[in-house]
Amino acid sequence: GENVEQHPSTLSVQEGDSAVIKCTYSDSASNYFPWYKQELGKRPQLIIDIRSNVGEKKDQRIAVTLNKTAKHFSLHITETQPEDSAVYFCAAKRYNFNKFYFGSGTKLNVKP
Amino acid sequence: GAVVSQHPSRVICKSGTSVKIECRSLDFQATTMFWYRQFPKQSLMLMATSNEGSKATYEQGVEKDKFLINHASLTLSTLTVTSAHPEDSSFYICSAREYGTATNEKLFFGSGTQLSVL
After folding, report:
1. Average pLDDT of every residue of chain B
2. Residues ≥6 apart with Cβ < 8 Å to A61
3. Phi/psi at B33 (nearest 5 deg)?
4. pLDDT tens digit string along B71-114?
5. Mean pLDDT across chain A
6. Which among B43, B49, B111 has the least Cβ separation from residue A42?
7. Which of A43, A93, A100 is facing B111, going by the closest CB pair?
8. Residues of B numbered 55-84 whose beta carbons fall under 8 angstroms of chain A's beta carbons: which are they?
9. Cβ separation of A41 and B112 shorter than 8 Å?
10. A53 versus A15: which is more confidently predicted?
11. Chain B, nearest residue to A107 by Cα
């Protein structure tokens, strides 16, 4: 089955700096890669996703890049703000399969 | 985005009792729902995949008789923790995959249930 690894486990940045979280996956048939943000005690919220036919996707301060050859994808947050502080999870899914495989999470702390 | 409602948000029960958690998709039909368990500062651990009208598929190591899952309609799945013990205390979250084409793969999460077994 699929194995998704996520790094780093914790990340501290100064407000205004950029943050990058990286994930690798093992199943070359995976074709959908969402990112979720989970604030303490709350539900994970989908913040951005990318499909395998696209190399990059951007939504305001958030972007995701995908390298299918290397089987890794990354979340980029620019101009970080304290409200970006949360745990971020990456995930991978194979076409026509039910399961989403989640990374172990990255706790992002944005210091004001 | 689509809305998934999960109730209760918090439950405290005595050891040996059963607890039922509901997960509803409010504005879409969900043929597939997932149940996760999350320990503090850890990732989402998939417990089972719930398919409407059929038996749930459990992950390795998850006891079927202890964690009963029912998915009787396209908008409702329930998880019943039977004969709860303190080690079952955890944050349980459901998620739903929107019914439709295979490319419509977005996953939406419920707000979670914090279960405390005394």
Report:
1. 90
2. A77, A78, A79, A80
3. -125, 155
4. 888 899 999 999 999 999 999 999 998 765 555 678 899 999 99
5. 94
6. B111
7. A43
8. none
9. yes
10. A15
11. B41
Q: How far apart are the C-alpha atoms of B114 and B118, rounded to whole Å? A: 13
**pLDDT band, residue B52 (cuts 50/70/90):** confident
Task: Report the gap between the CA of B112 and the closest CA in chain A (Å).
Answer: 6
Q: In this complex, which of B42, B97, B102 lies closest to A95 when CB atoms are compared? A: B102
CA atoms of A108 and A57, how far apart (whole Å): 21
Contact B109 A44 (CB under 8 A): yes
How far is Cα B110 from Cα B113, in angstroms, rounded to an integer? Answer: 9
Strand locations in chain A (E): 4-7, 10-14, 19-25, 30-38, 45-51, 56-59, 62-67, 72-77, 86-94, 100-102, 106-111
A54-96: per-residue pLDDT in tens?
Answer: 899 999 999 999 999 999 999 999 999 999 999 999 999 987 7
CA dihedral B51, B52, B53, B54 (to 10 degrees): 0
The tokens 């990340």 sit on which residue?
A: A11
Look up residue A36 and give its two tokens: 């979720």
Q: What pLDDT, on a 0 to 100 scale, did the predictor assign at position B1?
A: 66
B65 C-beta neighbours (distance < 10 Å), count: 7
Alpha carbon B79 to its chain centroid, in Å, reads 5
Question: A98–B97: do the CB atoms touch at under 8 Å?
Answer: yes
Rounded Cα distance between A25 and A17, Å, is 27
